[in-house]
Amino acid sequence: MPSQLKSFSFDASILQHQSNIPPQFIWPDHEKPCTEPPPRLDMPPIELGGFLSGDPESVANAARLVDQACRKHGFFLVVNHGIDMKLIEEAHRGTNYFFGMPLEEKERALRKPGDHCGYASSFTNRFSSKLPWKETLSFRYSAESRFSDIVGRYFLDVMGEDYAAFGRVCQEYCEAMNSLSLNVMEILGISLGVGPSYFREFFQGNDSIMRLNYYPPCQKPDLALGTGPHCDPTSLTILHQDHVGGLEVFVDDKWHSITPNPQAFVVNIGDTFMALSNGIYKGCLHRAVVNSTTPRKSLAFFLCPRMDKIVTPPKELVCEGNPRIYPDFTWPALLEFTQKHYRSDMKTLEAFVNWLRQKKHLQVEG
Ligand code: OGA
Ligand code: NI
What we know:
- By secondary structure, this protein is an alpha+beta fold.
- Helices cover about 35% and strands about 20% of the residues.
- Nickel (II) ion binds near residues 232 and 237.
C-alpha cells in the first residue's frame, strides 16, 4: 500500500495536547480559520413565547423576522422556545460522558461505511485530507408512533445497559426538537404565505437525524477546522451550542461568528427546505473552528422528511416570475448523493440536480 494511503489512528486524548498536528488535519490556506476573531453575525433573537401562546401580533412579528433572515442567509436564533433547560443540560452532560469514554467503548457504536448513523471520529482509520477536528455520534429519530422508542433502543442495543439513561434523555431531547421544529415550520409557512399547517403537515412523521458533536482542543487551531465549510443537506437544523463558541457563518462574503447563548437555539435552513420553498429561502455556508484550551460540544437536530415524501414546492410558491428551479426528489436520494458523491457545499442542490438528470439519462439509454 502506498505510504500516503496507509490508514492511521490517533488518540484524540493525546493529540489534543501535541504542539504539532498531523498533515491530514491541516486545511488549505484559502479555507483556514480567520486570523482575527470574525465580526458577530447581527441577528435579533426571535421570541417564541408569544407565538406559543397564540398571540397574533407576536406570530406576525416572528414571521417577519424569520422571513428577513431566510431570504438573506437562512440563520436565526430562537429564545423562549419552551424547551426545558434541564433537559438541554442533561443532554450536554450525557454527551460529555459519552465522548469522555475510552475509544474502545465509543467504537461499540462505530459507524459502518456508507451509513450515516453511529460513532465517527476523524482521529481513527481514515485516509483522506482536510479532516475535521471532531468526533460525532449520530442516530436516527422518527416521529412516527411505531418508532416511539427508536433513540432509547439504539443506545440500549448498541451501547448497552449503562447508556440506558442517556438514551432516554436523547429520546426525550429529540421529541422536544421535533415539536420545536414543527412550530418553526408553522412560522415558515406563515412567512412564505402558504399558511401555518402546510409545512407542519409535510413534516408529520419526519425521519430525522440527531448528531452530538464533540470538538477536542487543538494546539494548532489556526490550521485546523472542527467542521469544514458546508451547507446542511437536510431540511431544518436546530443546534444548541455550549458556552465555548466556534460556530461561524459565511454572510456578505465574509465569515461571522455566532456567539453562544445557552438560552437560544440556532436554527438554519438546509438544502431540502430551500428546494421546498422553490429557492425563496436559502441556507448558507457555515463551519466550526476549534481552540487550544477548551473542548466544545454542540447538539444538532436535523429535521428530514419521511423517506417516501416527494420534495416539491407548494403551488403558491411557483409562478411565471418564479418558475420551478429543482425537480421533484426524495430525501433518501439527496442523502445518498451527499454521502457517496459530494461534500455538501453552496452548490449541493445544483450538483444533485445534474446527477439526477444524468442518472435518468443513463436509465433511458440503458
Ligand atoms: C453541523 C454543524 C456546527 C457546530 O453539525 O452540521 O454545522 O457548531 N455544526 O457544531
Ligand atoms: Ni451544519
